[in-house]
Amino acid sequence: MTSTTLGAIYCVLSAGLFVYAIQSATCALRSFAYAVILNTLPLVAFGYLGNNEETRVAGVPIAYIPFCASVLGIAFRTDWIDFRVGRLDVVGAALLAFMLLQAVFLQSRFFGFLPYYLMWILNFATLHMTTRVVSGLSREQVSRIVHHFVISLAICCLVGIVKYFTGIARDANFMPMMNRNGTAFVIAICTPLILFLREQRLITISRVVVLYAVYAICIVFTFSRMGIIGFVFSTGFYFIASFLADFVSGNSSRSASSNRYAIVVMCLFVSLLMLTPLAETTRGRFITTVHTISRVMEHAEVDSRLADSKRRRLLDQGMDVVRTHFWFGTGVGVECYQGALADLGCVELVKPHNFYLSYLGELGIVGFSILIVYLGLLYRQLSAGADSGIAMLSFRSMFLAAILMFTMNEHVTMPLLWFLWGIAVGFGRVRHAARAHVQRDAGSIFNGSGVCVLSVLPKQRGVL
Predict the structure, then answer these.
(1) What are the structural domain ranges in the chain?
(2) pLDDT of 124-149, one tens digit each?
(3) Which of 31, 54, 114, 384 counts the most CB atoms within 10 A of its CB?
């Protein structure tokens, strides 16, 4: 199947998704779950198709087309009359302005720069619009949208598991047009949403364990070290932060406590799963990682027969690019970065698979500082709302897991990521609908911009 045919099919499917998305605000938000499904079920008979020209149209990954349709649906449902600009929007606009000036003065390759520039505009807009749409709903509506997304992703994980064990695919990657690290990244950042649903009392503790098991099995058999690290970190952060919140406040949250029990059970499950012969490939990749780290710490050469030797070379190349273009960078886009590598005489014209190193090279210290400020402000938004407390802890776990995994990937431009961040920020701004039960505020753990700060708010009681 050619890229043109595949692209045409997905344009038609995405048009149908857009028609669904514009029906209502909830349909627009639910459409992102269907975008994941569209990247899974129509290609259920295929293994990995590759992340190359065959799965791209005009340089844009075909896998992103359904997500773009969902973004357009959200744009249609956004109230543009009451438009308010916040600090986050100002910093985002400053970064976009810097990128544009950078392209003009550095004479960047226009057609290489434009798709990536438009992608950044799309992602900032996705975050802003999703936040506005979500903040206009009730917490119950938002929680059910998240529930729909989590269940849809679990179905896709089951598809990936079946494809692996039936020999259709070489791993449990259920999105054939996205590489396994991209799929593992999605699973890892969505894992804390299971805990969020338990906090909102939408699922039982047994269902928490079942969903965790499905996500864990899928992520183990994608054979992604990054995904497993993100999976463990996101749940570990939640466990520690919720424990400290309960300890300092002196009042245990029932949902947080039951989530911690579920986490312990799942850690034991994942540990046992990793010890089975089925996970031998995954164990081997971690053993290789330990060997590589030890060699680097000893300032010794990494064995050229190992796959990590190439990653080490790419990191060294990335450092050379940063040193050469320290202040203002190479310009945004792969072509700009490859041009800088070629000027340095590098043979492998490949980015280093590290968000921080890549974008420090592309934006320089000036632009990269603006980007870090943006991410810092975004993290602070996850503590918005006087009564967010423990309800926002799952979202902070999701955000920090992504930040950690950025050391091993460059998935910052993934539209789904910005949608989930928009859900998180919007949820913090949602006003409570009337409820019959009492809900406490568990405080805020590790709240701040890139700094771990312990801040526990007073306990509040009352009928909401």
Answers:
(1) 3-431+438-455
(2) 999 999 999 998 898 899 999 999 99
(3) 31
